[in-house]
Amino acid sequence: MNIIVLIKQVPDTSEVKINRETNTLIRDGVPSIINPYDLYALEEALRLREKQGGKVTALTMGPPQAAEALKEAVALGVDEVVLLSDRAFAGADTWATSYALSKGIKKINEFDLIIAGKQAIDGDTAQVGPETADILDIPFIAFIRKIESIDNNKMIAERMMDEGSDVVETTLPAVITVVKEINEPRLPSLKGKMKAKNMKVTTWTAQDIGADTECCGLKGSPTKVVRIFPPTPRGQREILTGTIEQQIEQVGKKLKEQTLI
Amino acid sequence: MDYLLTEEQIMIRDLARQIAEEKIVPVRAELDEQNKFPWEIMKSMAQADLFGLFIPEEYGGLGKNTLELCIAVEELSKACVGVATTYAANALGTYPILLFGLDAQKKKYLPAIASGKRLVGFGLTEANAGSDAGGIQTTAKLEGNEYILNGTKQWITNGGEAEIYSVIAITDRSKGARGASAFIVEKGTQGFTFGKKENKMGIRASATCELIFNNCRIPKENLLAKEGMGFIVTMKTLDSSRTGVGAQGVGVAQGAINEAIKFAKQRIQFGQPITSFQAVQHMLADMQTQTEAARALVYSVARFVDSGAKDISRATSMAKMFATDVAMKVTTDALQVMGGSGYMKEYPVEKMMRDAKILQIYEGTNQIQRNVIALDMIKALAKEK
Amino acid sequence: MGIKIILDQCTGCELCITSCPFGAIEMRDGKAFLTENCTMCGACVDACGAEAIERTEEEPAATATDISAYKDVWVFAEQHRGILASVALELLGEGRKLADKRKAKLVAVFIGHDIKDQVNTLIAHGADQVYLVEDPALKDFNDDAYAAALVALAKKHKPEIILAGATAIGRSFIPKVACSLHTGLTADCTGLDIDPETGNLLQTRPAFGGNIMATIVTPNHRPQIATVRHKVMKKAAPNASRKGEVIQVPFTTQSSLRTKVIKTIDDLTQKINICEADIIVSGGRGLQDPKNFCLIEELAQTLGGAVGASRAAVDEGWIPYSHQVGQTGKTVCPKLYIACGISGAIQHLAGMQSSDVIVAINRDPHAPIFTVATYGIVGDVLEVVPMMIRKFKELRG
């Protein structure tokens, strides 16, 4: 079974802090990582390969430094990696990203399953997986927490819903996104890290994948960001005084007044 | 301090540290409390290729040496000496095969060891043969194509959990130390059973138990080197592994310092963090200096061993003895810096102090190490004359 | 649109570097330079004191649609097991306001099986028109089938705006709808408005784990599609006398379905769905031990509320993921939120800060949770919560 895993290099948003004076993000020293949800996608692909044989290819689109994320994927054990990198891709929204990825996937050509994390922690859109599936005209299932059975033509899997879960069957090839309940990602191996250190990452430009630059990057993006601003903090804070017992007494009284308890 | 590690050595350190922080730290207290063998962690380490670190590439390993092994052991020991002991004892049990095995023996065992599929133990100590290895009573008698083993090995690390054991037994009692031989014994061989798991003061994540041989028959091909080489196999094995025990000492000392300074910075007394008191500052400074000195010695000795030097007993004994004495002192002082909190099981330092104690005892007590060092000094002087 | 640096005007003051949320500006030869990380968000344009950075308008790409042919605001009215979801009513409340601003109709698209008895609820909450698509194949949510139904309708009737809940269902199949219509989609919006000049839908959403807010438009494509976060928009008060038109639409494309739902499983551990609860008591790492979570449960029970948790508590395995509140868990908006031993990482705040009243209990007076708290108690949760349980029991009689 040949699997393509879509990954994204993201800033570690848990390390991002806000400069309260200028209300901007402090990015100094914020490390770039593989989107954490994509690690579950990589792990699931590697486990499927260990069971069924075949090949795992990690694919990403990004600036040249995104090759580092692909090298991390090699350290984890993927067989091949491809970076889509071109100035024409810059500023892409989810549609333009999905368009480029689908062109890259077509060039890779051999695949039975495409796996991605449920969303990326920087954008949190969860749209690239399903949009890529639609452009490739293959089925899509989101939020998978367990693959129950899989062969070359069919997969049965359990997906998380807001109030429980569904067991879903789909034809293959398909695109799926996975949630963190699906597995526990492995750590890199030394042999993998050594292999990654010396490798040259395959990089394809828009021309290499036959992408129409009208559809790429900012130009090809239906959505545009028109404003970025910091979230407004709430200002109605009330500091309570006295012993803990007295503070609880005050809170209780205020909540009672507002008929909350 | 920058020890001018290579890119690969830094890679090994970072990966071992990642395993320590992500896989060991969250469960170390539970492993300690429940006397529980860390199979999950062993799996992670195997998957990360750590078991193949010091095994030649032709047998499925990474072909690295003592320094790399010490770097990995140090990082693991920062988190838990119990887990690090399991890993280091695996190396200890592997050295006899690595140093003295025939190609066929290496081909049979090393790939499975390198991949972490099979764990190894080293069976030397007996009830009446601790520091005095000459007191070994386990016997091996050749009968046709088989050796028959009888006797009991005591306090064997990885006992019961490991599948492969390097065992020292007497093949000719009349020859004294020259009558000992080394064998490979596999778990599951008829006549080979285990005693009950020991209940220890520290390193409780590691398994320790008796190996019991009762007319245990093993194929003749499982003899390592030649009959009568058992004592030499033992000495060379201990020479190879001893620096790693020093690395355990450096690791646990550093782990305790890290906890102590983190605590001291947060602990407010007399209106200020206790790190602002000179009494505490001086303790921290001494602890770090001693640990750095131990690390410098361990790394230097590891490099010396890796250079292919022949006479390494004195150097490795110094590394083991010094670094583990430092470990005992530094973990004790780290607990002292933390006061009552340090004594509580809520914090990991009391465990580190309990764990550190074994380092002064196993693989040759620090008193025996001093004997080795002194005897080598005297021998060298005699040669000069 | 793009971003251009006018080198003659750049003073090399580096103000733009600190303003860039993506770290995409460097100094080269004393002038600002945009690297490939630039997403063209425009944050630097406002920051520049020398007017050396400007937006450049680009010709709409050849793929753009003729936007004048599109009108009306549509809401995908989600249902679970035949019961209308509350997010649908919230979207109707917000959709009504947008439709009024655009002087257009508000249309609900209601897909399922045996659901026609609820169309009046949709009309009472603001819909002028309901497209009702009923078929046994639509009983359970299915990506292919639901997308086919909505895409067919949108292609035929050309709505200007489509809103759907940013729920598991909405986030699964709406991207396919947007893609099939080749238009833009903005995920998980927390604010919607109409730009009075262009008539474009202004879609505001958090990004970077809630660290920044971004406003996004779809200027050249229609429909403009957004998924909207649950519990952020307000339902309108129902008006049973409102009149509306119900149009039954047959579902015809079922033969091409590649996916099917074999069975559905309810999560029994989740006694009260935290998204719907009026009172939530949440626990975090400050509880120190899974067994202390019973304190949270007891307090929740005392108040008749639901139990929530921070990501730290869920990651520790103290409580299932379905209870997680925050950016990567559920967004909640109860009347009362009590945060116990939660420090208030930005990603947690993103999921609960629109609660009406927030009570925070934490040992660290500088914990960020106190910046959003209505009432803050500085103390050890293990000490405070048991006292609180006693006190609140007393107050409730």
Question: Secondary-structure map with pairings?
Answer:
The complex is a heterotrimer of chains A (261), B (385) and C (397).
Chain A: E1 2-6, E2 9-11, E3 17-19, E4 24-26, E5 32-34, H1 36-52, E6 55-61, H2 67-76, E7 80-84, H3 94-108, E8 113-117, H4 128-136, E9 140-150, E10 154-161, E11 164-171, E12 174-178, H5 190-198, E13 202-204, H6 217-220, E14 224-229, E15 238-239, H7 244-257
Parallel strand pairs in A: 1-6, 1-8, 6-7, 7-13, 8-12, 9-12
Antiparallel strand pairs in A: 2-5, 3-4, 9-10, 10-11
Helix pairs in contact in A: 2-5, 3-4
Chain B: H1 7-24, H2 28-34, H3 39-47, H4 66-79, H5 81-100, H6 103-114, E1 120-123, E2 139-143, E3 146-157, E4 164-170, E5 180-186, E6 192-194, E7 208-219, E8 223-224, H7 230-266, E9 268-269, E10 272-273, H8 278-306, H9 313-343, H10 349-359, H11 366-384
Parallel strand pairs in B: 1-4
Antiparallel strand pairs in B: 2-3, 3-7, 4-5, 5-8, 6-7, 9-10
Helix pairs in contact in B: 1-3, 1-4, 4-5, 4-7, 4-8, 5-7, 7-8, 7-9, 7-10, 8-9, 9-10, 9-11
Chain C: E1 2-5, H1 15-19, E2 25-28, E3 31-34, H2 43-47, E4 53-56, E5 73-77, E6 79-80, E7 83-84, H3 86-101, E8 106-112, H4 119-124, E9 129-134, H5 143-157, E10 161-165, H6 168-180, E11 185-189, E12 191-194, E13 201-207, E14 212-217, E15 224-228, E16 245-249, E17 259-266, E18 279-283, H7 293-303, E19 306-309, H8 311-315, E20 336-340, H9 346-352, E21 357-362, H10 369-372, E22 375-378, H11 381-396
Parallel strand pairs in C: 5-8, 5-10, 8-9, 9-16, 10-15, 11-15, 18-19, 18-20, 20-21, 21-22
Antiparallel strand pairs in C: 1-4, 2-3, 6-7, 12-13, 13-14
Helix pairs in contact in C: 5-6, 7-11
Labels describing this entry:
heterotrimer; A: 261 residues; alpha/beta; 9-stranded mixed beta sheet; two-stranded antiparallel ribbon; 7 helices; C: 397 residues; 7-stranded parallel beta sheet; 5-stranded parallel beta sheet; 27% strand
